[in-house]
Amino acid sequence: MILEKMLSARKVPMIPDFQTKEEWEALREQYKEILCREEYGMPVPAPESLSFEEGPIMDDDFASGYGIRYTVTAHTKVAGKEFSFPFHVILPTTGKAPYPFFVHNDFDPGEPTRFCPIEEIVQQGVAVLRVHYKDITTDDDDFTNGLAGCLYPDGDGINRAPDSPGKIQMWAWGSMRLMDYAMQCPVLDHKNGAVIGHSRLGKTALVTGMLDERFRYVIGNDSGCSGDAITRGKSGERIYHILAAHRWFCPNYKKYCNKHDDLPFDQHMLLATIAPRVLIIGSAQMDVWADPLSQYLSICAAAPVWKRLGAGEFPHADRRPEIGDRFGDDNLYFHMRFGQHYLGRTDWNIYIDIIKKKMESDA
Questions:
Q1: Annotation says 199 is catalytic
Q2: How is the chain split among helix, strand and coil, in percent rounded to 5?
């Protein structure tokens, strides 16, 4: 009742009851359309052509011999223009193929990286497909480069159409191209792919999961404002703060800058679009900008959708989240660790543990 009272006090619009999967699919499509139209921009269309060029193995003794690494270049055609970008594939040398895998949109261009402890991941028999997000398009107001340059020939990122895609949608498009590659790679387990990201790229992972149902696991780490955190009544970062980076969103989002109660949605609806697949939310106790309480309220508000679909319960405490909390045992998971805004080994090990347990339950 404590969490219900918090959501009620914030006037968060609850997800209506539905009786059938068909009713949910119709409601889910409504949520997708409104989230894209009013917040992230409409999805970037699938490429008109797509091919992959695999480079030679860069390291056959990578990560202390636990992995091999090579680069793939994706060649695409979008809006009639050619666009290519590289990404890295890191495969385990231990365990048994096909391997579960992460698609990781990362802030760092190479390995090792602050946000992706490759050696520890591949040691556990999990593969990683990594793309440096700026190789899709830069994280600034320049709309002339990369994918943005295909979509906006004049490079005007300010005076674009109200529902035109922001850069989060473009980075999500990149993640989906990595999944295209994974689906044709025989040593990867196509039924056990995860999309993961941190902070603005955590928002990107959630949008990717909303749009692409091939990802069984959708992982948002510290995605906070305009990601996994309830907007109404949120502390820390608010819409008027985050719109300093207006390039991430569509121009329509500016309408709600100081009018959170006017939103025709809230972020738990984004989380709900992942149902009935596996949704994992990571938070950090000192990440006050993201606001762990609002992240927790969001997944709690979305949880009834999984239950109504017969996709499992979300056992959790009816209180504010605390350090060390780790909830969930079906298809919904939340944890709050000690520390700052970061994607570290503690988070990765929790995510890998969940994936392995799900795979064991499938066997």
A1: yes
A2: 35, 25, 40
Distance CA 231, CA 243 (A): 14
DSSP string, 124-188: TT-EEEEEEGGGTS-SSS--SSHHHHHH-TT--SSS--TT---HHHHHHHHHHHHHHHHHT-TTE
pTM over 0.85: yes
In the predicted model, what is the mean pLDDT of residues 161-184? 98
Q: Report the DSSP pairing between strands 99-106 and 127-132.
A: parallel
Cα–Cα distance measured from residue 167 to residue 207, given in angstroms and rounded to the nearest whole number = 11
As given in the structure block, the two tokens for residue 196 are 């993961």
Going 141 to 82 to 207 to 193, the CA torsion angle's sign is negative
In the three-class reduction of DSSP (H, G, I as helix; E, B as strand; rest coil), residue 70 is classed as strand
How far apart, in whole angstroms, are the C-alpha atoms of residue 171 and residue 227? 14
- Residue 55 banded pLDDT, cuts 50, 70, 90: very high
Choose, from 104, 198, 199, 298, the residue flagged as catalytic: 199
User: Over pLDDT 90: what percentage of the chain?
Assistant: 92
Q: Read off the tokens for 67.
A: 């992995």
In the set 75, 190, 246, 341, the catalytic residue is 341
Measure the N-to-C terminal CA separation of the chain; round to a whole number of Å: 37
Residue 157 is predicted with a pLDDT of 75
Residue type, 167: K
Half-sphere exposure (Cβ direction) of 328: Cα atoms closer than 13 Å: 26
Say yes or no to pLDDT of 155 above 90: no
